[in-house]
Amino acid sequence: MSQKISPFLWFEGNAEPAAAFYVSLFADSAITSVSRYGEAGPGTPGTAMVVEFTLNGQEFMAINGGTTNGTPLEEPRPGSIALYIDAENQAEVDRLWDALSEGGRTLPCGWVTDRFGVTWNIVPSGLSGVLHGDDPERSARAMRAMLAMKKLDIEELRRVYAAE
Question: What is the model's pTM?
Answer without folding.
Answer: 0.70
